[in-house]
Design brief:
Radius of gyration: 20 Å
Helix content: 25-40%
Structural class: alpha/beta
CATH architecture of the largest domain: 3-Layer(aba) Sandwich
Order of helices and strands: HHEHEHHEHEHEHEEHHHEEHEEH
CATH class of the largest domain: Alpha Beta
Shape: globular
Number of strands: 11
Strand order of the largest sheet: 1-7-6-5-4-2-3
């Protein structure tokens, strides 16, 4: 039996509507490097969702989207403030620091979120030549712990950043999940609350390959085409990335996929709450579940439904749902949890 993995939404395949869009774009010869009708239409879709002033550049993966976004905003003597759990700090192999030359300043966080009150002490060195100069605040939506920033929280951080001459970057690899959970438009938690540059994810929400760097504030993207090229992220056959985003941002596919993943996580969380040996360590807000499971049960459960151990010391695991997770998948996994925990 081909059972679904709960390790990551990256494990899921391609949504049929996205795959069909790739097939339909695979006709004839069109211009390369983004000079094609699919890219033009996709760029218009981004303007519909993020505002007329938005400018989008497609890249291959999320690390590139984050790194090149930050590179466009910084010079080597700058610093980027982020949560200690941020993907740019923990899971990108030092790429942000290597390719931007900037220093990452990791801020202790609760549930993956940083608060405005924590930022003040990190800007005291502004103008001091002996210290790296803070230039960007980077937040993740959703966070590495699956938690969400409300529009009000994002706006407060953006206002702080702009008041002190800093930019606000958002790692939105799961932005769709956040918007679906908050029941809002994509621009409600980005453009309209002061985000300057966004890394917008597609791969985790049903695309085959491709992410987007979206400049939401005019005047920030003037040299980005050179940065992207030098960063080896300019796709020659860009239509095959653009066509996917065109499908994703049409007919609410981005929302449908994200909501399905979120709903499945909520359903599994409710089932897990009934098992006394399992403890959810935080509220499930999107498509990630963090739970404490007795260590002896984990390898047995992983034999049938793979997931990652987040902390061996604390016996905490991360369980992710995807756009293609079904209620049958959830109940099968939950039934297995109950059986193993009974024994």
């Amino acid at each position: 039996m081909n059972r679904k993995s709960f390790a990551s939404d990256n494990y899921a395949g391609i949504h049929p509507e996205v795959l069909q869009a790739i097939v339909e774009s695979n006709t004839g010869h069109v211009g390369s490097y983004g000079k094609d009708v699919f890219t033009e239409k996709a760029e218009e879709k981004f303007k519909e969702h993020f505002g007329e002033q938005s400018e989008v550049y497609f890249v291959f993966n999320g690390t590139a989207a984050n790194v090149l976004s930050l590179q466009a905003l910084t010079r080597s003597y700058h610093a980027v403030l982020c949560a200690e759990t941020a993907h740019i700090n923990t899971d990108e192999c030092g790429a942000p620091e290597k390719f931007t030359g900037s220093k990452l300043i990791a801020i202790p966080s609760t549930g993956g979120k940083i608060k405005v009150e924590q930022l003040g002490k990190h800007i005291g060195a502004l103008g001091e030549q002996h210290h790296s100069q803070p230039k960007v605040i980077s937040i993740s939506q959703t966070t590495e712990f699956g938690t969400l920033y409300t529009p009000q929280e994002v706006k407060a951080i953006a206002e702080f950043a702009h008041q002190h001459g800093l930019y606000l970057h958002m790692d939105g690899s799961r932005l769709a999940n956040a918007a679906a959970s908050l029941d809002c438009k994509l621009r409600d938690i980005t453009t309209d609350v002061g985000v300057d540059v966004l890394s917008f994810g597609g791969t985790k929400n049903g695309m085959m390959i491709g992410e987007a760097v979206v400049f939401l504030r005019s005047g920030l993207s003037e040299e980005f085409k050179y940065i992207r090229k030098q960063g080896m992220q300019l796709g020659s056959k860009m239509r095959f990335i653009s066509a996917q985003f065109l499908a994703m941002l049409s007919n609410n596919l981005w929302w449908r996929n994200a909501k399905q993943a979120n709903d499945m996580a909520s359903l599994l969380a409710e089932r897990m709450k009934r098992i006394s040996q399992i403890q959810l360590i935080q509220e499930v807000q999107a498509n990630a579940i963090f739970a404490r499971i007795p260590a002896e049960y984990i390898p047995v459960l992983q034999e049938s439904h793979f997931f990652y151990v987040w902390s061996e010391l604390e016996s905490v695991v991360r369980i992710m749902t995807s756009f293609d997770t079904t209620t049958e998948d959830i109940h099968r996994f939950a039934d297995e949890m109950e059986r193993i925990c009974r024994n």
